[in-house]
Amino acid sequence: MTSRPPRWVGVTGLVIGLGLASAPALFQMYDRAPAGGDMMVEFEPYMTQQKVDTFNGYMDTIGAAVAEIGTLRQEMVADGTLTAEQFDTQYSIAMQLANQWSAIDEDMGDLLARMDRNLDNYDAVNSLPSFDLFPFFFVIPGGLMAMAGFWLLLPKRGGKGAATWALLLLGIGMVLAPVAFQMFTRAPKGAEMIDDFRPMMTVDRVRNVQGYFVTLGAGESQLRASVMPAFQAAGGDAADYPAIGQYSAVWPTMLTDFNPMIATMRDNIDNFEAVDAMPSFDLFPWFFLVPGLIVAGAAGWALRTGRREAEPDPTPDPTTPGGTPS
Predict the structure, then answer these.
(1) Number of folded domains in the chain?
(2) 318: in domain
(3) What range does the domain containing 88 cover?
(4) What is the pLDDT of residues 129-159, one digit of tens each?
(5) pTM of the full predicted structure?
């Protein structure tokens, strides 16, 4: 049998429990956490090494084709087909692609590099429990802690020992949760990913990328429909410019692959902002560990001291038979 726990143990359980239970509302997790879950699901098809390598291969193909545009221009000017000014005017869309390619390649290359270096981070975050459940990892144990703490504060009620044990077990559960879900390794990777994706998940960045594909598509169309036919009509051999031919051949596939990813970026800007507005992923393990340690420590101390007080004094009473007078 244990004695009644000190009042502060009940206060500790009640205050920390209420804090945990109210945290999701305070940080708007009921809306923001599911938004993060939706974003993770929608980006999943693109966050693979195979997909990133495919996208980089497309960029290499376009880069090689753009390099050939300059060579083709020089050849057509050298053989008298067109002057440089005529080429630039007549094929202004292809030249726009050539002139803008450096900026396009730099920006798209940065986007793909961010995806590439965050593949492991994405997998780590995706291995955590569903974002939809995050609020309830605080509400349920927090609510139970608050109830146990409140029970300990009620006067003349039984079950104080059971309530204290409940606090101990809930505290231990909170401590073990980040270990069980490997939060100490996975959550920091989530924070790293959010930080790295922040520059690319903006309205302006997505608009720029959409604009690039207008330029890329228009340039490919003019190369295929106008520039190369004119070059061949003047006696040129298209086989001398294989990258341009490859660009035109794979452009429909490029567009089919890139467009959904860009649409996913555009559609998830709000979801990203919702996740970014929550506390940093780095902190989530500590949101479990620290309250759990405090509650478990308080309950464990109360149970230990209560048991000591309830145990009979092993020192013989000198007033009873067999006792030794002092």
Answers:
(1) 2
(2) no
(3) 48-117+202-267
(4) 889 999 999 999 999 999 999 999 998 767 8
(5) 0.82
